[in-house]
Design goal:
- With about 180 residues, the chain is an all-beta fold.
- The chain is built from no helices and twelve strands.
- It has two domains: about 60 residues, no CATH class; about 90 residues, Trefoil (Trefoil (Acidic Fibroblast Growth Factor, subunit A)), CATH 2.80.10.
- The strands form six sheets. Strands 1-2 form a two-stranded antiparallel sheet.
- The radius of gyration is 23 Å and the shape is elongated.
- The N and C termini lie far apart (about 45 Å).
- The relative contact order is 0.10.
């Protein structure tokens, strides 16, 4: 904890004198909580699951933003590589695919005139505007034409889908379940 325990911010400091370690730098796992000697727990500030969100120490309330798992590096599974299935998302990494409607004419999802909007169109040979791929790094589905990601318009507040610059927010992360 910052400032010898008087602050809330979580910081990493070097402690060359381990025999001088104080309560504000001693923690243990209790169930799913990382707790210090005074009962403060590691907390994702504001409970928001945002990239680069600040960590603090706070009184225990038990919500998800205070719960943690310890995963040892030698036990961590490797991420799927090109051509391998990402089981969480149901898609193969960097393997081009089409999205085909189950309506009677089985039309393909298409990036209309290489714009950012989607339509369904018949499939006539290989059309790059109908090909997509799953990006393991961003966990998004991207267009083979312009490398932009599927995106629900207006940060997920509308019902239209478009291609947009990748940001990996929830409105760009799609899972395929058969």
């Amino acid at each position: 904890m910052q400032n010898k325990g008087s602050g809330q911010n979580a910081v990493i400091e070097s402690n060359k004198n381990l025999h001088l370690t104080r309560w504000w730098s001693l923690f243990r796992m209790q169930g799913q909580f990382l707790v210090n000697e005074r009962g403060k727990v590691l907390d994702i500030h504001g409970g928001r699951d945002d990239e680069h969100r600040q960590l603090i120490f706070y009184g225990k309330h038990g919500k998800l933003n205070q719960q943690w798992d310890i995963i040892y590096a030698d036990e961590w599974p490797e991420e799927p590589k090109k051509g391998e299935l990402n089981k969480d998302y149901g898609l193969y990494v960097q393997r081009p695919f089409y999205v085909v409607s189950q309506l009677p004419n089985h039309r393909y999802l298409d990036n209309l005139n290489n714009a950012n909007q989607f339509v369904i169109k018949s499939h006539f040979g290989i059309r790059k505007s109908q090909l997509f791929w799953f990006d393991q790094k961003t966990l998004t589905i991207k267009s083979m034409v312009n490398n932009k990601s599927w995106d629900i318009v207006s940060s997920g507040s509308q019902n239209k889908i478009q291609l947009y610059n990748t940001n990996s927010k929830w409105w760009q992360c799609f899972k395929y379940k058969d």
